[in-house]
């Protein structure tokens, strides 16, 4: 959850991978609904499916070198509905997303 928001009204999602860890699936039952995250990395391509409950939002950190290497449901993520590009921060591209289900794909290298 965000440091400035209470009760999971705003969520921060940032996957961490290692050479030994290339797949994670998790969910959490918050007061606003179920938060879901399932990602995998194969051959430098990350597939990440997330679910952000109604009446909440999320900051999503996606490992990619630029926003042009990130898609959401087959479209450039920065022009997808409910998705807004924020910045590039280190090895992550940062987006704000509204409540909903998203399917991100990113070239990680």
UniProtKB/TrEMBL annotation:
<dbReference type="InterPro" id="IPR035398">
    <property type="entry name" value="Bac_rhamnosid_C"/>
</dbReference>
<feature type="domain" description="Alpha-L-rhamnosidase C-terminal">
    <location>
        <begin position="3"/>
        <end position="75"/>
    </location>
</feature>
<dbReference type="Pfam" id="PF17390">
    <property type="entry name" value="Bac_rhamnosid_C"/>
</dbReference>
<dbReference type="InterPro" id="IPR016007">
    <property type="entry name" value="Alpha_rhamnosid"/>
</dbReference>
<protein>
    <recommendedName>
        <fullName>Alpha-L-rhamnosidase C-terminal domain-containing protein</fullName>
    </recommendedName>
</protein>
């Amino acid at each position: 959850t965000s440091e400035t928001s209470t009760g999971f009204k705003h969520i921060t999602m940032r996957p961490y991978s290692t050479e030994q860890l290339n797949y994670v699936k998790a969910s959490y039952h918050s007061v606003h609904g179920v938060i879901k995250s399932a990602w995998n990395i194969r051959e430098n391509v990350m597939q990440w499916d997330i679910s952000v409950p109604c009446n909440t939002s999320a900051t999503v950190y996606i490992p990619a070198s630029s926003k042009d290497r990130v898609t959401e449901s087959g479209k450039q993520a920065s022009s997808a509905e409910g998705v807004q590009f924020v910045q590039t921060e280190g090895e992550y591209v940062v987006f704000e997303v509204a409540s909903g289900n998203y399917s991100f794909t990113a070239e990680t290298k």
